[in-house]
Amino acid sequence: MSKTTIPTGGITADAIDATLVADDAISEEHLDATAITGTTELAVQPAATDEIIISDAGTLKRLDIKHISNTPSFLASLSSDQAISNNSRDKVLLDAEYFDSDGKFASNKFTPTIAGKYYIAAKARCDTSTNGTATELSLFKNGSKFTQTRHTLDNSEEFMVAAIMDLDADDFVEFYAYQNSGGSTVVGGGTFGSDGTTAFMMGWRLTGL
3.40.309.10, 3.40.50.2000, 2.60.120.40, 3.40.50.1970: which CATH number matches 73-205? Predict the structure, then answer.
C-alpha cells in the first residue's frame, strides 16, 4: 500500500504520532481557524490572567493580559482635613483607597513592585486666609523630592502636581504639601467623588514605551 493511500477502514486511533509527521508539515492552511482563535466571544473585559497568543520573534507564546495593561494603578484620597504646619513640608496622609489594582498602595505610599514608567499625579486644596502664602505640592521618590508645583495663594486655592517617573520594583512615591502662611493651615479632605476639594494621589504604569 502506498504511503499516501488511506486504508479503507480508516486510520486507527493513535496511528499517527510525531515520528510520522515531518517538521513544518502542518501549516495554518490545514487548520480550522477555531483551533487558533476559538468560537466563543469574550464579551467582558479580560481578566488579568486571561491569555492571548503573540509571536515573539517568530515563536508563538502565551501572554497574560496583565503584562499589557496599565497596572499597577491606584487612586488614594484624604478622608478628612489635615493640618499642615507653618513653613513645613508634611506628608499628605492618604487614608482612603478609591481603587488599588494590585494592592500596591499602603501606608500613604505607592510601591509598584513592577519596574516601568509611571504617570503619577496629586491634587490638594490649601485653606488659608493669608494672601501671598507660598504653597507647594511635591511628589517624593524614595524619601527625596522628585518634582513640585509652587503657587502663591490668594486665600484658598487648589492645584496639581504631576510627573512621569521611572520606578524600579522597590521604589516608592509619596505626596507632600508645604505652606508658609505664618500658622497652621489645612489641606482639604472628604469623600472622593462627592467633594471636589478632596486631596488625592493617583498613578498607573505606562505601556508601549
Answer: 2.60.120.40
* Distance between CA atoms of residues 19 and 42, nearest Å: 37
Decide: pTM greater than 0.85.
Answer: no
Q: What is the per-residue pLDDT across 44-92, written as a single tens digit (0 to 9) for each?
A: 878 877 887 888 888 888 877 777 788 999 999 999 999 999 898 999 9
Separation of first and last alpha carbons in the chain? 59
CA atoms within 13 A on the CB side of 55: 2
